[in-house]
Every structure is written in structure tokens, then in C-alpha cells.
Amino acid sequence: MSRLDTREKLAILADAAKYDASCASSGTSKRDSRDGKGIGSTEGMGICHAYAPDGRCISLLKILLTNSCIFDCHYCINRKSSNVRRARFTAEEVVQLTLSFYRRNYIEGVFLSSGIIRSSNYTMEQIVEVARSLREDHDFRGYIHLKTIPDADPELVRLAGVHADRVSINVELPTERGLQRLAPEKDGTRIEGAMKDVKLAIDDRQDAKKRYKSAPSFAPAGQSTQMIVGADSANDRDIMLKASSLYDRFGLRRVYYSAFSPIPDASAVLPLNRPPLMREHRLYQSDWLMRFYGFTPVDVVNAAGDDGMLPLDIDPKLAWALKYRDNFPVDINRAPRETLLRIPGLGVKAVNRIVTSRRWRRLRLDDVARLSVSLAKIRPFIVTEDWRPTLLTDRADLTKWVKPQTQQLELFGA
């Protein structure tokens, strides 16, 4: 390997990190250095593309320690047999890059992952050293997200959680069959075992915090994972059931979905084309239904077709409502909040506004229009003081009425 300068390494390893979607920075504890001590904070506006739940943009230095790897996972562009230009940072170089970028107001934190070099333990030691040095040597108080390696010694994974705000362990593929076929060197049991260890450590530290205020924190922003969509034969039903299982067993903050993208010199076992990006979007919507709308995994799975795939032309909530029309129409003025959340077109904020407003008056259709975004989608599924859909809900062609209309945009339209 020819000797590369820092700028060339950054170009290679920042580009190689773009395939990992799990870099949001929400949920951690608040820290800053306004008292003159330390450097960095976990808050503030930035220029990158990781967003907190309240809409703040958190800028993260998102890089790999190295894109060299001893594994040969078929779907990975950094696999051992891939013909890509390789580069590697030292732990100290990543530390200095992070501090330099922060002082220039480019970033608020760092997301660090890596290919596996020498061994899982050696790589994990280097990743942990970056976080340790930032925290202990430089008193860095910004956000740190570390991608951990399941095969590494549990003590190294524990140290990652001590220094990082969030740790993540990728399950990679939703089925064990797919993992054995496309990543035979990885073991689903070991991956889930590492996730369980992290969950237990998080629970232990949270319990200790309740008893002792001085107890050190452990991954206060929790853990997350990522699944690749479209690289194997798993359908949306398989993916949703896997995600639900991970949430329930390991208390994950997020499951990220990354649509498979064809890579140079791809293996013959991979599909030739990437899946529609809309499929990734529909999976995120179904994930939201389980996390924020009170839908059970069975409910969300039932929104899929006979082939186990979510429809691409309508969102999962609307697909579920069209399948279970006997649950509608819903009386806006009487239904509990849990039922209102199942109405297509109503989001959490709109439902909260409706629940608050109806304490003072019985709502009419115009009121619902002001409190929501799309009345056209909602109308067939609700009853208000002055509106009843009568036969509209039972129309055989209801899908056509509520399906979003495609529209050709004008380049120079006003």
C-alpha cells in the first residue's frame, strides 16, 4: 500500500463509511464545555446529516478506522476480495481529526466503524482507544458512536460502552439463512449474544444511577443495529418480525434499514439490481407504526401482501386500514387516542391536537382539516359532528380515492 496523507485517507474512509446508515445521535445525555472545562458538546447545529428527534441537525465525523478487512462478506464493498483502494488511520490520527474538525465548528461528534484487521480483538482495541483518548486525554464532551464487533472480547465491548454515547452491533441480515449464505464468517448467535451483553450492561448502569448519582454511565444513548434490505431473499414480513424481536429482547433504540446497493466486482450470489428505495422507506414507516402508533408486529405484518411484501404505492397504515375496513369509520369525538392513531393520514401530533381540542367542543370536518395535513386521505375513515362517510368506506375502489396521486413536477414551475 502506498503511503497516503491524511487528506487522502479521509477521502477514502469517509466515502467507505457512507454505507452504514445507523449514525443518528439522539437520546444521549446533555454535556457541554461552557464552563471552560473540556471540549465539545452533544448539542448544537451542524452541517452533516444526522438528526435528533426534535429536528436538530447533529454534525458527525463519520469515518472508518480502516476499510481493510479479513472477512469476505459478499454484500460488503470492503470485503477481503474487493478491488478497492485501501487506507487506514491510526487511533491518534482519528483523535486529532475529531478535535481539529470540532475546533473549526465542522462537527459535534464522531461515528466510528471499521473493517476487521488482524483480529476482532485488535480492531476493537483500536476503536476503544480512540474513544478513551478523546474522553480521558482531551476531556471531549461531544457525541461518540462506536460500531462494535460481536466477536471481540466482551470486556472490550464493555469499555466501548463506558466511553461512547451509543454503541451499535449490526445484525446485517434478517435471517440466519441469509447470513450463512452471504456472510459465512459471521454468526447470528454471537451477534445476538453481544447485543444481550450490552443490554445487561445498560440495565445495570441505569439501576446503579438510581442508587448512586456518581455511578458512571454506560452508552446513555443505548444501542442500535442495521439490516441490509434486498441483498437476500428475505421479504418485508421477515424483516419486520426480526426488527420487532430485536426491540423486545434487547431494548434497541433504533433498527436501521439500508437498501442493498450493487457494488463493484460483486459476487455472483448477489442480485443484479438494487431494491426500490421506496421499499426502505416503507420499512421505516412500519417501524414507526410499532414504535409510536401502538401497532403490534402482527398488525404491521398483516399490512403486507400474500407475498410478504409491503405495497410500494401506499403507506403501511393505509394498507392495514384498507384490509380491515370493519374497524372504520371512527368517531373523532369519541374514539380513544389508541384508535385515532390507527386512522390513515393522522400523525401523533394531529391526534394529540384532536384529543386536546375535543375537550372544549365537538369537532367538525373543517376542524379536522385544520388539525391535520391531508383531509382527503382521512375523510373515508372518520365520523365528525357534520360528516359521515356512509357508503364511501365500503367502496370497492376506495384505494383509488385515497392513494396519493402521482404528479409530474415542472422544472420552472412557480
Automatic annotation (TrEMBL):
Domain of life assignment: Bacteria
Residue ranges of coiled coil: none
Name of the protein in its database record: Putative DNA modification/repair radical SAM protein
Single GO term (MF): metal ion binding
Occurrences of domain Elp3/MiaA/NifB-like radical SAM core (ranges): 59-286
Cofactor: [4Fe-4S] cluster
A Pfam family per the record: Radical_SAM
Keywords for this protein: Iron, Iron-sulfur, Metal-binding, S-adenosyl-L-methionine
